[in-house]
């Protein structure tokens, strides 16, 4: 009896140690990912401490998918870190608000000012732009060009060198013209320096903005915290916009900016064009930060739907950004094999709502089979290419003839492919689990 008790105790303590080890391994892995995504070291450490307090080792011992429990806890914790607890000032349509943009030179202020104005204009607002950057030559021309393109009224001067004077004049004018969103673009410097912050303070005092927006380049790395804090100390930053999220940066600096300014991120910039601008959404952002793609649970879904032996290859291709027609074909095969089709479908990102409306599973299944017949008439080159331009008119006609389908149907199939490719391309740059880690995930 004594032997079995001690054995049981030993087993119990072993179990705890194992769960603690799983927790630590998992945390270390995610710590690495977060540091690579430029999350500030101190924030990562705080998060680790919190997670250890939150995750209950007993739950881990009882639960089957330990990693899932831990991942979920980390996910929630990061979401919490991006929420400063109070919303930022939100301008109201039809009421005059002054919004001042601040940030270092090159962070994307001028571009983002126009995007912000354009975004609101499309919703029926009357925005206006004021160029209070007299520091950089060409600043006014840039704003003028942007504003003209978007048909947004603007104000600035080639002669006047006092940014405060221009800012005040511009705001006054547009108040008189009943604009409801008066946006003041300011100058930046290459470095954080006293003169810049003094200028920001003066412009802010003179124009009394309802909201000061701090614009931050997502690729500045670990510098984010200090930069955001420096701006917060001179002007009352109330919200953050993170730019250049289309690049390589995963944007961990956003966490720093929130921590340093105690303000929320409200938009992100995803390109140089006017409409490459998105409302910031915490969950997809955190998924991306954790290398989980742009939505939570992407990996889980792949693991559930895609057969084990196909997973490494698929993930490798997706991480390279190659969602080819052949991959689509193979995923169709997987889906048809698995049934009941409704359940399986909704598991793979992008394969749900559009491709398979609820309650119309039979039709969806027929559609997939039709698509696959058409793809059977494609050449290897066509199936393995990720160049959408390859599919020219003569190829489309050949495929239609070969499969006994209409050109229109082939085009519809290719449209579907493009839609999925766009969604799945977000897996680009994904960290691929090493052999052996796969089943543990
Ligand atoms: P400012 O000095 O802060 O006013 O920055 P600008 O607005 O002049 O932007 C600096 C550069 O960054 C320009 O070449 C912009 O086109 C580019 N830029 C701004 N926002 C984005 C973005 O979200 N994505 C990309 N790829 N480029 C951006
Ligand atoms: Mg500028």
From TrEMBL:
Superkingdom to which the source organism belongs: Eukaryota
Xref: Pfam families: SRP54, SRP54_N, SRP_SPB
Location of the protein in the cell: Cytoplasm; Endoplasmic reticulum
Keyword ATP-binding among record annotations: no
Domain SRP54-type proteins GTP-binding: 264-277
Main localisation: cytoplasm
Sorted UniProt keywords: Cytoplasm, Endoplasmic reticulum, GTP-binding, Hydrolase, Nucleotide-binding, Ribonucleoprotein, RNA-binding, Signal recognition particle
Reaction(s) catalysed (UniProt annotation): GTP + H2O = GDP + phosphate + H(+)
SUPFAM superfamilies: Domain of the SRP/SRP receptor G-proteins, P-loop containing nucleoside triphosphate hydrolases, Signal peptide-binding domain
Assembly description: Component of a signal recognition particle (SRP) complex that consists of a 7SL RNA molecule of 300 nucleotides and six protein subunits: SRP72, SRP68, SRP54, SRP19, SRP14 and SRP9.
Annotated domain remarks: The M domain binds the 7SL RNA in presence of SRP19 and binds the signal sequence of presecretory proteins.
Listed NCBIfam families: SRP54_euk
Family: Belongs to the GTP-binding SRP family. SRP54 subfamily.
Function, as annotated: Component of the signal recognition particle (SRP) complex, a ribonucleoprotein complex that mediates the cotranslational targeting of secretory and membrane proteins to the endoplasmic reticulum (ER). As part of the SRP complex, associates with the SRP receptor (SR) component SRPRA to target secretory proteins to the endoplasmic reticulum membrane. Binds to the signal sequence of presecretory proteins when they emerge from the ribosomes. Displays basal GTPase activity, and stimulates reciprocal GTPase activation of the SR subunit SRPRA.
Descriptive protein name: Signal recognition particle 54 kDa protein
Provenance organism: Hevea brasiliensis
């Amino acid at each position: 009896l004594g032997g079995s008790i001690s054995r049981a105790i030993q087993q119990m303590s072993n179990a705890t140690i194992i769960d603690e080890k799983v927790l630590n391994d998992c945390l270390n892995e995610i710590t690495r990912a977060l540091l690579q995504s430029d999350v500030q070291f101190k924030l990562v450490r705080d998060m680790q401490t919190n997670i250890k307090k939150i995750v209950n080792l007993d739950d881990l011992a009882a639960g089957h998918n330990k990693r899932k429990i831990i991942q979920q806890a980390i996910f929630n914790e990061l979401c919490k870190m991006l929420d400063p607890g109070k919303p930022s000032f939100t301008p109201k349509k039809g009421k005059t608000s002054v919004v001042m943009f601040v940030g270092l030179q090159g962070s994307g202020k001028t571009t983002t000012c126009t995007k912000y104005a354009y975004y609101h204009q499309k919703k029926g607002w009357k925005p206006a732009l004021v160029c209070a950057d007299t520091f950089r030559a060409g600043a006014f021309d840039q704003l003028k060009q942007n504003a003209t393109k978007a048909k947004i009224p603007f104000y600035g001067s080639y002669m006047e060198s006092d940014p405060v004077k221009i800012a005040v004049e511009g705001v006054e004018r547009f108040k008189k013209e009943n604009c409801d969103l008066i946006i003041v673009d300011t100058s930046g410097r290459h470095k954080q320096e006293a003169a810049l912050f003094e200028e920001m303070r003066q412009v802010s005092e003179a124009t009394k903005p309802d909201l000061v927006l701090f614009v931050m380049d997502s690729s500045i790395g670990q510098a984010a915290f200090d930069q955001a804090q420096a701006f917060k100390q001179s002007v009352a930053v109330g919200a953050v916009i993170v730019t250049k999220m289309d690049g390589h940066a995963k944007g961990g600096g956003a966490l720093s900016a929130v921590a340093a300014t105690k303000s929320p991120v409200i938009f992100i910039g995803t390109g140089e064009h006017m409409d490459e601008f998105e409302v910031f959404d915490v969950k997809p952002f955190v998924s991306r930060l954790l290398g989980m793609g742009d939505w939570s649970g992407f990996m889980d879904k792949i693991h559930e739907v895609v057969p084990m032996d196909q997973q490494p290859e698929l993930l490798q291709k997706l991480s390279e950004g190659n969602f080819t027609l052949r991959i689509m074909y193979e995923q169709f095969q997987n889906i048809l094999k698995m049934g009941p089709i409704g359940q399986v479908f909704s598991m793979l990102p992008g394969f749900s709502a559009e491709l398979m409306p609820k309650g119309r599973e039979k039709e969806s299944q027929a559609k997939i089979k039709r698509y696959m017949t058409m793809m059977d008439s494609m050449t290897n080159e066509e199936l393995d290419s990720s160049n959408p331009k390859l599919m020219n008119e003569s190829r489309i006609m050949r495929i239609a003839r070969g499969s006994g389908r209409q050109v229109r149907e082939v085009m519809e199939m290719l449209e579907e492919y493009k839609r999925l490719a766009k969604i799945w391309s977000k897996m680009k740059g994904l960290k691929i689990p090493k052999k052996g880690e796969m089943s543990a995930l």
